[in-house]
Amino acid sequence: MTAQPADAEPADLAAADDPAHLAADATIDHHHPAIRGLAAGLRGASEEETARALYLYVRDEVAHSYDVDRWSAAVRASDVLAAGDAVCHGKAHLLVALLRAEGIPAGLCYQRLEVLHGLAAYRLPGQPEWVRIDPRGNRPGLDAQFAATPAEERLAYPDVPLEPGVHAAVPPVLAAGLARGVPGVASFEYIPTAL
Hints:
By secondary structure, this protein is an alpha+beta fold. The chain has helices at residues 10-17, 33-42, 47-61, 65-68, 77-83, 88-101, 172-178, and strands spanning 63-64, 85-86, 106-112, 116-122, 131-133. The strands form two sheets. A three-stranded antiparallel sheet has the order 3-4-5, covered by helices on one side. Strands 1-2 form a two-stranded parallel ribbon. α2 packs across α6 (88-101), α3 (47-61) packs antiparallel against α6 (88-101) and α5 packs across α6. It is globular and about 40 Å long. 43% of the residues are buried.
């Protein structure tokens, strides 16, 4: 599913997107007890505070495999949480699961680097616009930050255009590639270059 046109009414956006962008599946398994428990433990006083806390947790507490040279190949949100590391896609899956566990519509977005880079988008209930947030993890030269509005977006790769759409589920070509990841093997070769 993709984002609605900019001229769509907020009610139309909620009716069209929220069920799919709140759903659980085999990858975004937000009904898993560990996901539910973590989300509840990080819940803030508002949806925005909750989204910020969940984002910061995934960005800062779950390692990016490349940065720590620990390659879990975890893809399912609950597996990423258990492993404590993943590539960008696994981190995005975990963030989306945590947001959905708290009733915040969330989806997956992509940028085309050498391979597809995965990030997340969320929409506060009642708001018409998706806000993209990149939980990849910061290091020298990469400085992603939480954003509450599209104008505030600060992604890890700000100069790389976004692929169109906010996907409710992992696109099939990407899911097939991610399934070829091997724990303990340092590689991005299994990640496709395009959707």
